[in-house]
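Researcher: Let's walk through a ligand-bound prediction step by step. First, I give you the protein sequence. Second, the SMILES string for magnesium ion. Third, you return the three-dimensional complex as structure tokens. Ready?
Model: Ready.
Researcher: Here are steps one and two:
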Amino acid sequence: MTDSTRCGYVAIVGRPNVGKSTLLNHILGMKLSITSRKPQTTRHQIMGVKTEANVQAIYVDTPGIHQRRSTAINKYMNRAATSMLSNDVDVILFVAQALQWTEEDQAVLDKLHAVKTPVVLLINKIDRAKDKDKLIAYTAKTAAKYNFAEVAPVSALRGKGIDVVETIVARHLPQSEFIYDEDQLTDRSVRFLSAEIIREKLVRELGQELPYTTTVDIEKFEEQAGLITIHALIYVESNGQKSIIIGRRGERLKSIGSSARRDIEKLVDNKVYLNLWVKVREGWSNDERALRGLGYSD
Ligand SMILES: Nc1nc2c(ncn2[C@@H]2O[C@H](COP(=O)(O)OP(=O)(O)OP(=O)(O)O)[C@@H](O)[C@H]2O)c(=O)[nH]1
Ligand SMILES: [Mg+2]
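Model: Step three, the predicted complex:
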């Protein structure tokens, strides 16, 4: 068994919004990590295991490494991502976006200079790059910025080039017994994933600034007679934010609730009753203690 199987850890890193979580979901063939058009959607490390034939790849999606704010939650997110660079991983997937190179991309790349792990450059969103000559030039220029082990153009959204990524990953995994059971997909609980789904709907529904000041805490998660009852608290930092989320006659909260419920039902394959409350907790996102109580602890 040990000489024929390969198993190891794969970190997915990059600046916010380049498509890291979309990539993980496509590889796993399920929606595990939440995604949105807004940067800084992922806040925690999310582990997803893909076992196929004699290869088990343990992917870890990370928050986009950024330099925008220095509040406690932003520091937590950057720590959650950069700790994967010093951890014992077997290969790092560095994701960049086709035809875009920003200071934030450069800052992530600078951190990679300190690691010895092989780094694979993935140029994502190639479906958006209509000018192929420009894409080729961009790829060559980006590939020359670092001693990458390999380079692959992909579209995480359309599933292009993902099989190539998996082949590259397998090549970098050591011969080892599987660490997880073959049918295990993640180490995250359904409770955690449900809170994430609610947060995804919030991020998708709300304006640019508000998602940073909201978080979701599951108060009750109970299964009884074929029904899962979930009571979730949405924390915000002011009354103004609370009324934005609730919306006119409660309509926004209702629509957030029903789309979250539908996704949670798919995840748990069960009927779900979801109850959402919005609560003001001033300054939670810049308060280390409050953050720990809300599940932001490393
Ligand atoms: N056109 C196109 N859009 C993509 C592709 N991959 C991701 N996206 C979109 O890019 C946006 C960001 O995707 P995410 O997967 O949330 O990005 P992320 O890197 O995980 O972002 P953070 O968690 O904020 O760091 C979403 O709107 C995705 O649908 C792609 O291959 N093509
Ligand atoms: Mg993400």
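Researcher: And what stands out?
Model: The longest strand covers residues 215-224. Residues 251-268 form the longest helix (18 residues).
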